[in-house]
Amino acid sequence: MATVPDLFRRNNGLVGVSDESKQRSSGSTQLHVLAVDDSLVDRKVIERLLKISSCKVTVVESGRSALQYLGLDGETNSVQFSSGLKVNLIITDYSMPEMTGYELLKKIKESSAFREIPVVIMSSENILARIDSCLKEGAEEFIVKPVKLSDVKRLKDFIMEGENGGKKIDLKRKLHPDHDHNPLSPASLGPSMTAFDQCQGFKQRSPPSLRPSPIIRSSKKPRFLNGN
């Protein structure tokens, strides 16, 4: 007999749910991620990275399909509730036809049932106004493609800490301890540093006249960050 996820995948645009039999087992502590991207190649990449990180993955090809999965399109019941798969994180591309990642973010944050789910935006374009608008609308983070395994692992740790007792953690990536020859060079900051981290490091080591504006500016702090 076909399961609800099977039927939804065939009829409503879902690309697939990974390891469905394992996902239905009781007591699972795996992170379940809903990944949204109109690019087949990018969907495969993010799905692969999430699986390597031992996450459960549901991948869809559009914002509309994501809303259908969550039951927010006004036409279908929530597949996640029917299948017993709670979504812990939504990661979506920004530039998609019909509905952008920003528009999907707004729909999710307008829902009383899903507004607490962390949403991460991905984009191949590093546009400051776009980053600002997404963060102000409630996105947990904005990642410039290509997404790396270190990004996925960091996000997983962040979400799992919140799921397991609500512990506060520091999301900011630390300076690499082995690189002290040039504190301003990208290499000295370590391979997993973001552009925001690099700007912050530069600001701390340079006079005010040379300090650039940070690439990512947010009016809110992520929910599980330390209040420092």
Automatic annotation (TrEMBL):
InterPro entries for this protein: ARR-like, CheY-like_superfamily, Sig_transdc_resp-reg_receiver
Basic residues: bias regions: 218-228
Region (Disordered): 200-228
Entry keyword Transcription: yes
PROSITE patterns: RESPONSE_REGULATORY
Residues the record lists as 4-aspartylphosphate modifications: D93
Segments traversing the membrane: none
Residues in Response regulatory domain copies: 32-160
SUPFAM superfamilies in UniProt: CheY-like
One Gene Ontology term from the biological process aspect of the record: cytokinin-activated signaling pathway
Keyword line: Phosphoprotein, Transcription, Transcription regulation, Two-component regulatory system
Compositional bias annotation for Low complexity: 205-217
Superkingdom of origin: Eukaryota
Protein name: Two-component response regulator ARR5-like
Organism encoding this protein: Cucumis melo var. makuwa (Oriental melon)
